[in-house]
Design a protein that fits this description.
It is built from seven helices and seven strands; from the N terminus they run βαβαββαββαααβα. With 184 residues, the chain is an alpha/beta fold. The strands form two sheets. Strands 2-5-1-6-7 form a five-stranded parallel sheet, sandwiched between helices. Strands 3-4 form a two-stranded antiparallel ribbon. Strand 3 and strand 4 form a beta hairpin.
């Protein structure tokens, strides 16, 4: 996946992003299972490989070591490309990933009442809930995606119900079929 790499991918890479609690991991898992892509849960990858530089106690979160994460993911994506396997990654941020890595950016959105309930269920403290709800209201992740990637590959979809999640997965399945047909 490096700039001087001549490997042309035969399968697409998808990034599922959005505010914490919108359903990224559930959606990405279902996309991977349905379409036959490798799922990379970036948050878990960060934890497993200790890709952090400290801790923010107020928000109860680790501080990301972006270089370590990107180096790790670069290797994983190249191995998948070499094996003709596409990936679907999920993470709450997208601007740190190189544009060349992804062919589709799926930005999940949720109504604030639905999101609030999900964040309470996760045990997020008031400060963390408020910050994430504000980010969703202000469409921070969507704007970040539109600023970081070609707007043609950024898709905003709702993720409030199981039916919406299933519809999003079906849209991705159809998109992947078209991508493969166009790139074979």
């Amino acid at each position: 996946m490096s700039d001087n790499d001549d490997t042309e991918r035969k399968r697409p890479n998808i990034l599922v992003t959005g505010t914490p609690g919108v359903g990224k991991t559930a959606t990405a898992s279902l996309i991977a299972e349905t379409i036959g892509l490798k799922h990379i849960n970036v948050g878990e990858l960060i934890k497993q490989n200790k890709c952090y530089d400290g801790h923010d106690d107020a928000l109860d979160t680790h501080l990301l070591d972006e270089d370590k994460l990107l180096d790790l993911m670069e290797t994983m994506l190249q191995e998948c490309a070499d094996d003709n396997v596409g990936i679907v990654a999920d993470y709450h941020s997208c601007e740190l990933f190189p544009e060349r890595w992804f062919d589709l950016i799926l930005v999940l959105r949720a109504k604030t009442d639905v999101l609030y309930d999900r964040l309470v269920e996760r045990g997020y403290n008031e400060k963390k809930r408020s910050e994430n709800l504000e980010a969703e209201i202000m469409q921070v992740v969507l704007d970040e995606a539109r600023e970081s990637y070609d707007t043609e590959i950024v898709q905003e979809v709702q993720s409030n119900t199981v039916e919406e999640m299933e519809s999003n997965v079906e849209r991705c399945r159809l998109w992947v079929e078209q991508w493969v047909a166009n790139n074979s």
